């Protein structure tokens, strides 16, 4: 038996819980393996808007991406474990 995970709700839940003190910077990886760096974001119930730190090759600064197209979000800022606890994660990460 396979259980389908509603990834759209996973990303929306994560964005709603994003700690105010945590930098909004990272990389969104899409289902097509495109890596989109971001330096800020906004979101609604269906779409995430990414602010690129620099324009892409076509001059695009903002990217609107539906949650269903997101494979993962990489966080590039150095973030203390306690901020991940604010997301609802438990445990700890090794200190680097």
Brief write-up:
This protein is α+β, with helices and mostly antiparallel strands and 96 residues long.
The CATH topology label of the domain at 23-87 is SH3 type barrels
Q: Strand portion, in percent?
A: 25-35%
Indicate the multimeric state. single chain
Coarse shape? globular
Content-based structural category: alpha+beta
Give the uncertain stretches in residue-range form.
Answer: none
In angstroms, what is the radius of gyration?
A: 14 Å
Q: For the record, what CATH class of the domain at 23-87 applies?
A: Mainly Beta
State the total count of DSSP E strands: 6
What is the mean predicted local confidence, pLDDT? 90
Biggest sheet character: 3 strands, antiparallel
Read across the widest sheet, the strand sequence of neighbours is 2-1-6
* Annotation field: number of helices: 2
**CATH architecture annotation name of the domain at 23-87:** Roll
H/E order of the elements? HEEEEEEH
Query: In percent, how helical is the residue content?
Result: 10-25%
Q: Give the distance, in angstroms, between the N- and C-terminal Cα atoms.
A: 39 Å
Description:
Helices cover 18% and strands 30% of the residues. The chain is built from two helices and six strands; from the N terminus they run αββββββα. The chain has helices at 7-16, 81-87, and strands at 26-30, 35-38, 40-43, 47-51, 62-66, 70-75. The strands form two sheets. The protein has a three-stranded antiparallel sheet with strand order 2-1-6. The longest helix is centred in the N-terminal third of the chain and has 10 residues, at 7-16. The N and C termini lie far apart (39 Å). The model has no long low-confidence stretch (mean pLDDT 90).
